[in-house]
Automatic annotation (TrEMBL):
Name of the featured protein: Protein-serine/threonine phosphatase
Biological-process GO terms, alphabetical: regulation of proteasome assembly
GO cellular component: nucleus
One Pfam family hit: NIF
SUPFAM superfamilies named among the record's database cross-references: HAD-like, Ubiquitin-like
Sequence ranges assigned to domain FCP1 homology in this UniProt record: 165-351
Residue ranges of every copy of the Ubiquitin-like domain listed in the record: 33-108
Superkingdom of origin: Eukaryota
An example molecular function term from Gene Ontology annotations: protein serine/threonine phosphatase activity
Length: 378
């Protein structure tokens, strides 16, 4: 750890909308109670005007275990049910409206990976840099439904600690998929876990651990590799158990290395947000840091950094996000030459001395480390 002064020229810090612009006006929402029958039984549920059609389908799945893509919703609206992003308010549903749900619940069958609802890491070209679009972030943060989703995710959140948090440390929230591991050969079983790791992974974690508690946030996605179909016997509930085995094998958990992962979050702590892009509806998952901060009040925007290969994952926290190029094709010469984690080590150690992260912009991290004295080419 160096004692160099922090060098971040103001002129490379772009203007961004301040978090103060986020509305805190939580006027009570208007809810509508609906009744539906499914499989001979009657159910009741409530939807808010700010919910989307997608949220209604999610609520139906929670009640019946019928996956979204299998749901047939009859008699709720005239004609075809509008698209997922449409606001419930726009459906103008009367209180007590009755409808019928048709659909087979999810059993213990092996999932067809082509029908997995969430494939964020594959469709990487749809990423958008939210640090360059503060207005888009602000729109998300000002959406009453999204603020409610943060509250709901906070209430649902159960964290199993792997290692205790330490006093006075900052928090490093680290994506797994294509940030520190090439998930593709890992999930298909084509390579052993240690061969899927980004070069310098353990050294990176050991170097930053004295200053940061480490949280990993993963979305394991299974890819279609036809001759390895039996590997798809994977269910979201067991996602962590599966990954834990891999991380133990890799030495990230339960080894004698000089770092510990404090806790792990998965896809169940994420939710979908809706917006427009190029005039078309666009939706994607987000990782809302606020749910961690609600759970561990010692952490907030002043001492948390979130590293991810997908900028849209930090759409609700653009100032805490640092986007790293995706790591793919493990074991190829290009992948073996990857030095991103070394660069990241220099940056994280450098900013470890900053008392309030809100005063810096991680977006410029590569420019910042170029200004640091040290080994060339690192
Ligand atoms: Mg990722």
């Amino acid at each position: 750890m160096s004692s160099e002064p922090l060098v971040i020229p103001r002129d490379i810090i772009p203007d961004v909308a301040e978090a103060d612009n986020v509305s805190t006006d939580d006027t009570p929402e208007h809810w509508t109670t609906l009744k539906f029958t499914w499989s001979g039984k009657t159910f009741e549920l409530s939807v808010a005007d700010t919910d989307r059609v997608y949220d209604l389908k999610t609520a139906l799945r929670d009640l019946t275990n019928v996956p979204l893509e299998r749901q047939k919703i009859l008699g709720l609206v005239k004609g075809k049910l509008p698209e997922d992003q449409v606001l419930i308010a726009d459906l103008r549903l009367p209180a007590g409206k009755k409808f019928t749900l048709v659909g087979t619940p999810e059993g213990d069958e092996i999932k067809d990976p082509s029908r997995l609802e969430n494939l964020p890491d594959i469709v990487n070209d749809l990423d958008i840099d939210f640090t360059e679009d503060p207005a888009a972030s602000l729109a998300y943060l000002n959406d009453q439904r999204n603020r409610r989703k943060v509250k709901e995710a906070t209430e649902k959140l159960k964290i199993d600690m792997i290692a205790p948090l330490r006093e006075g440390k900052k928090l490093l929230v680290l994506d797994i998929d294509y940030t520190i591991l090439d998930t593709r050969p890992l999930t298909s079983g084509l390579l052993p876990p240690d061969m899927c790791a980004r070069p310098g992974l353990h050294e990176f974690l050991e170097a930053v651990y004295p200053y940061y508690d480490i949280c990993i946030w993963f979305v394991v996605v299974f890819l279609p590799v036809p001759h390895l179909r039996h590997h798809y016997a994977f269910r979201s509930q067991t996602g962590w158990m599966w990954l834990e085995t891999k991380l133990v094998e890799l030495g990230m958990i339960g080894s004698s290395r000089n770092y510990q992962i404090s806790f792990v979050l998965d896809k169940t702590c994420m939710f979908t947000v809706f917006s427009q892009r190029n005039g078309k509806p666009w939706s994607h998952f987000v990782k809302p840091l606020q749910i961690i901060w609600n759970h561990f009040p010692q952490f907030d925007a002043s001492n948390t950094i979130h590293i991810d290969d997908l900028s849209r994952n930090f759409a609700l926290n653009p100032r805490e996000g640092l986007k790293i190029p995706a790591f793919r094709n493990a074991q190829t010469p290009e992948a073996m030459a990857d030095r991103e984690l070394r660069k990241l080590t220099r940056y994280l150690l450098h900013i470890a001395q900053v008392s309030d992260f809100r005063t810096i912009m991680h977006k410029n991290w590569k420019q910042v480390i170029k200004l640091l004295p040290g080994r060339p080419g690192v």
